Amino acid sequence: MFDSDQPDTEHLIQRFERMMKEENVRFFDVEEFEHITEYYLETGRYKKALHAIDLASSQHPHVASFPLKRAQYLVAMDKIELAERELDRAESLDPTNFEMLIARGTIASKQGLHSQAIRLFKSALENAEEPADIYPMIAAEYQSLGRFEEAVKFLKMAIYEFQDDELLLYNIAVCFDMLNNGEKAVEFFSQFIDSNPYNEIAWYHLGITYSKMNVFEKAIWALDYALVIDDSFTAAYYEKARVLERMGLFEEAAETLRASFESDEPTGYSYYRIGNCYRQLGKQDEALRAFKHAVQLDNELDEAYLELALIYLDQERFYESIHHIKKAVTLDSDNPDYYVIAADIYKRVGMMLEAEESYKSILRLGFHEPDIFIDYAELLLDLDQVEEAMKMLQEGLSFNPESNELYAVLAGYLFSVDEREEAFQILQDGMEVSPDVGEAIINYFPHLMDDHELNQVIKKFRP
């Protein structure tokens, strides 16, 4: 790896670029070329890096590191076949080069050959100057195979070499989570903290682990330590607020989110979370202000527009409610829940055709819950589309053949329009599926309780 702070770096790069500009080939030794190529690769100037590699290969044709560097670049560009050719060349020049094995392992990983990648990476360990650099690569392959215990083993080996590596700690937490082993996670992070008491990331993951184990008081304790170490640790504020919400301490959760503003700019999402806390506390005015802040900071935050629509609906400010539910639907047109709420709002204000379009959108999205068909049928009846309402309930039964509610509502509507023969057939079909259909039809249509013939059928199927 090059060191851009070395005094010769700037002079070396200037010499090389002057040579390219003058188109006058000059000699550079192997170490100089390695330094030049590393500089260009790590600063993202790939065209110059490749030019340097080509020139280096021509001046030093028996040095393996240059075809190897070209291969590493080609692997990153997903040009696997070309990369393998360069690796073959590098291997012919230096069969024991561990970097060649790493490159082959990376290719195997990209091809989904994770077991092969592991074998190659482990072989590279034998000659590697810094074996700890390879441990995370092996762990990643084990994670891809779902072998999380083996992944943890190599991640632990790596973290004790690179104790400030946040990604390693994150992956250890992920592996323990996938193993559903909170106790082992607590044990690891506690031991790691004993050696690294000021590592806020470790405290943070310990807090998350306790939270997932529903040990909320200890979760708060660990997250507070993370914040003592780094009072600008935004993720820790958010996680602490989440734990407080789960504890039902919504006022404290809102205060925690606001505390994060002292070190970080507020976001639309943070105000959205604060608004939800106030909603839970029944503080509608404070919630309304928070959700307004949320959409001002992030005008694409559909969840906040939804909450504004619901608050305005509760306040019977229907125009504002419709405006905001439309915005939410526009931002996330594939969310069936938004159309359900939109349909309810439209029905409340008498916009029946708009409500019908919402139900059509829900069904187009493949959302076929019984309640949707029941509510849609009710809307169609309000529009005097009786036949279409019955068809809608029949369609609902085709998707939900064991739904007590759909049998009950369809039969009840047929009784209501005096189609008794068909109503009794539907009722009996439903009672054969579940005797509870009889109770359901009475719950939906209490006036049918006095229908003697209906009661006889229900009694016949009652266990």
From TrEMBL:
One matching Pfam family is: TPR_16
> Is Cytoplasm included in the keywords of this UniProt record?
no
Q: Could you tell me which residues the TPR repeats occupy?
A: 200-233, 268-301, 302-335, 370-403
Q: Keyword annotations for this protein?
A: TPR repeat
Q: Which InterPro entries match?
A: TPR-like_helical_dom_sf, TPR_rpt
Gene3D superfamilies under this entry?
Tetratricopeptide repeat domain
Q: Does the keyword Ribosomal protein apply?
A: no
Please state the span of the N-terminal signal peptide per the UniProt entry: none
What is the name of the protein in this document?
Answer: Tetratricopeptide repeat protein
- What organism does this protein naturally occur in? Phaeocystidibacter marisrubri
